[in-house]
Amino acid sequence: MVTISTTRGAIEGVERPGVVSFLAIAYAAPPVGRLRWRAPEPPDAWSGTYRATAHPTRSHQAPFPADLAPPGGIPGAMGEDMLYLNVHTPALGGQPRPVMVYIHGGGYTLGSANDFDPAPYAARTGLVVVAVNYRLGIFGFLDLSRFGCEYRGSANLGFQDQIAALRWVKANIADFGGDPDNITICGCSAGGGSVIALMSAPAARGLYRRGVAMSPLEIAPAPPDVIGACSAALGVSPEALFAQLSAMTGGELYEFQARMRLAGGACVDGDVIVAGMQDGVRAGVNVTPLLVGTTLTEGEMLTAGLIGAAGRSEAAFQALESGMLDRIAAGDVSAYLALLNELTQGLAPEARLNRVWYDSFRAHAVRTADALARVEAPAWLYTFAPPTEHPYGPTHGADVPFVFNSLDPARDGEMRVYYRNEPRTRALARLWSRAFARFVECGDPNGADFPVWPSYDPSLRACLVLKDKPEVVFDFEGARLRAAYGMT
After folding, report:
1. Which residues of the chain are under the pLDDT cut of 70?
2. Has 396 been annotated as catalytic?
3. Element (H or E) spanning 16, and its range?
């Protein structure tokens, strides 16, 4: 154990090879009682020495997918008192270190700061890595603004939590060896979508320097209205819904969310997130340099998960497709549908849904890179495409272990997140991990082990494709797909 003095008091962490981990540090007050569904408030001070040696509570959620979970499963109990973060630092003194703040994914209904252990990555790269919890599902993305001004912004409490965590990092990370002026936010899926959404959050301005968005999930253009459906399901009037929900325990609320199949409702609400990505970038709300990209076969794992949960239902496939079309095509779906029909002609319905999943992530990534380039903000676009023997291919989430180089040589030969843990795979992980670490350190992923990877420019449209080796491809999408994404 290691105990240090901070501006908030003494704190004890866990010492491991090359790194000290401080777990379950409160960055906001517990969101329980009167604070349920309210904006995060500052945490209480502690007296004596705070023992930051055990993983924090996670938000109520479904079990983590077994194929993506680390060996031994995800640590931490579940509950509402979960606004904590974990700090992993390779040094507590000397020159301040660059900081990566990791925002977990999971469709805004799943995940936590405990999903994986970034301590070895911090030790190898010299970065300070912070992983954050935020409120999920019905706790973090339910629009209750009609019930009083104190619930304004409740549609995006999860984003408000992320901003509160960034404020904490900015104010306190120097005590843990980090540089408060060199903070990069990073995430995959909903975490990547969060990174992009925060570029349209005025309250996040100045809290970080750059972002990394892996397979970013685009947020909805407005809060979904679920008040009527929820009140009907509980047998109360819409006016009585808030009191009914408030009387329920956290576990009961989660069970209600699952029964109602309420998805993460992250959205443009006008208060926390004030605009969609392109409008936010054009308006300069919170523009930052970005590393952004997707995997080559995003959809295979997601479609398989849907089939595993609900069976092979073409009606469910079509409902998902319908819900994603507007965001893929930026409003005009005719060109995209024509191309989709052509690309998937004669294929099974699940193959068509795989393509729709891919385009839902890819369109958001490419449009974001393009929008940043048009305001002269640097963005680097990539496609993660290393071959694998797994039938899912380089699918959604498969790149995270490569970014954090978390393929343990002691487990040689096993399948780890759809890739065989073998020397070739580990070499690619080291390569990809170094590029991301360079971006966190200095804002440019280029290095001697890469071909020259230009930032995105609408006239060249450079994209780095990581296969067995990295290769820069120009206009990876092609004119017709870009047009289907609503781009010129």
Report:
1. 66-67
2. yes
3. strand 9-16
